Amino acid sequence: MTDEWAGIPMPLDGERLIIEPKFYKGKELSEIGAGPPEEDTSGATMRNQFWSSYRRCQILIWQEKDGRIDWGPVGRSHHFDHDIRTLMCSQAWGIEQESNAVQTLATLVNHHQMRQYVLTGMFMETSKRSQVTYVFRRLKPTVAIRSEGERLRILCCMCMHPIAYYEDSWAGAMCPTDDVLAHLMLMRGDEKMFWRQSNQHPPSRPAAGL
Question: Disulfide-capable partner of 159 in 40, 102, 141, 188 (CB 3.0 to 4.6 Å)?
C-alpha cells in the first residue's frame, strides 16, 4: 500500500469487511473473511421481501420446490446483535488513534459540543443551509431531525463509512471518532453529497440504532 493515505483496513477473524468500491484494491480486500458462497440446496425460489413495521423485521416470501408458497420473518426487532459485534470489532482500533481523532474534533466544534461528546458520545449541529439538525453519534448512525413548531421530527438515520465497515456492526475500518469527523466535515462541506453517500435508515428500523 505504498503512497496510500489510509492503509489497509484491519482484517478480523470471523468478520467480513465491506469495502468502499472506489478504494484501492477494494474488491480484493472485500473478499477477506467472506468465505465461499453458500449453496441453496432447498430448491426454493425467492418471490418477494418487505419490511414489517408491526413485527419490526424483514418478511421473506418464497416458493418451495413443490410449488407451495411460504413466508417467514428474518432478523431481530432490536440492534443488540450489532452492539455485540461492534464490541468484538473494537480490537481493530488503537487508543492513540482514537485520542488523536478526539483532539482533532475539539478544534472543529465549540466547547459545549465537545463537552456533550465527551460525556455522552454525541453532539448536535444545525445546518445553516437546510436548517436540518444533525445529531452526530459515536458508533451509531447520524440522526437528521427537523423542528416542526415545538416538535422534532426524525427524518432518517444516516450511516456512512468512508473506507470500510464490518458487516452487521456499527464498526468502521477507521476509529470511531474518525467516522464522526467524516460525517461532520462532509455535512459542512457538501450537505447534498452527505445525503447521497449515506445509507438512510428509517427511525423504526433496528439499523437506525435508536
Answer: 141
